[in-house]
């Protein structure tokens, strides 16, 4: 009887402690830009569950907020309403907007030791270009990417091209494209040579062309654009010519979301899209495919892309410290490797690629290394103050040129004037 009573007392004490510990746990709300369901959501949920299990003093509520645009809009609305998330993954290009809205705090305030500073320095420099400004670190790279070129090896072989070799230059892409175009008996194109999407975020893929031609679209301070630079005009003319002059790409606006499916179905032999599509292509392409760096003009080049972690104002000191620790954990090699293998996004720290897990993965799937290696030539994605307004102006200019409503030169000159009017106050 005494033993039974003692066991009950111990159990009650344990339950009481568990209840107390749960009540004392730090609650974190974490916005993540992905629709509910799918491998990305499953992986994030699995990682947050694993962290919560290993850290019972932290409760993490992962809120799947939809697209990047949905996520930043919800984060801004929630912050203005006095109920901000403590942590969110939002586009790296929204950094200046979040600073301008006075919604985020720099990680440096909570990463002050030499070890912490070494950790910050351990991310790829190309990713940090869209993560730091004014000597402070506002974003920590996580869901990051670059665009790459995918090609159908079977289509290459059929066209008499080396199936193991991607076009290395602009001229080669046109040359290959002409050999890859296929037409039916009526003269209708059934397979295009290349597909570069111009909907959704056309500025991003176009930025690859601009960088390859030796120019960036904006300065590092986010207060000046170079839209009407002659090299940008030349890059846009090349893009337009792929359809109108060289006839290797379908005319008009090309849909971003439909591009992988068009590739799978043989409607195009090459495509430009995010390395974030790599796992999708691996799982769904019914043919052998290659992945290569974007072709060069004056130089190799590509923009970085994707999302960073941001810390929001309004959190308690305990919540922010817990958020920082979670970010350090989820970007560590083991977790980062799981995320890269599940999605195709680029692991943002070199140390992840040195793990046995990633080495083994890359050995069996070497295409995953292309985007990582391209970081050597990558530049920051277009990002300015009033970023959504400025990017819309530029996207509209691209569309005007692609659809033939304006010449590249006229469209970009008008876009530069509008961007100048918006950004003048930030200089």
Automatic annotation (TrEMBL):
Domain of life: Bacteria
InterPro entries assigned to the protein according to its UniProt record, in alphabetical order: Bact_solute-bd_prot1, SBP
GO CC terms, sorted: periplasmic space
Gene3D superfamilies: Periplasmic binding protein-like II (3.40.190.10)
Pfam families assigned: SBP_bac_8
Subcellular location: Periplasm
Predominant location: periplasm
Residue ranges crossing the lipid bilayer per the database entry: none
Keywords: Periplasm, Signal
Signal peptide: 1-23
CDD domains reported for this sequence: PBP2_UgpB
Family affiliation: Belongs to the bacterial solute-binding protein 1 family.
Protein known as: ABC transporter substrate-binding protein
Organism: Roseibium aggregatum
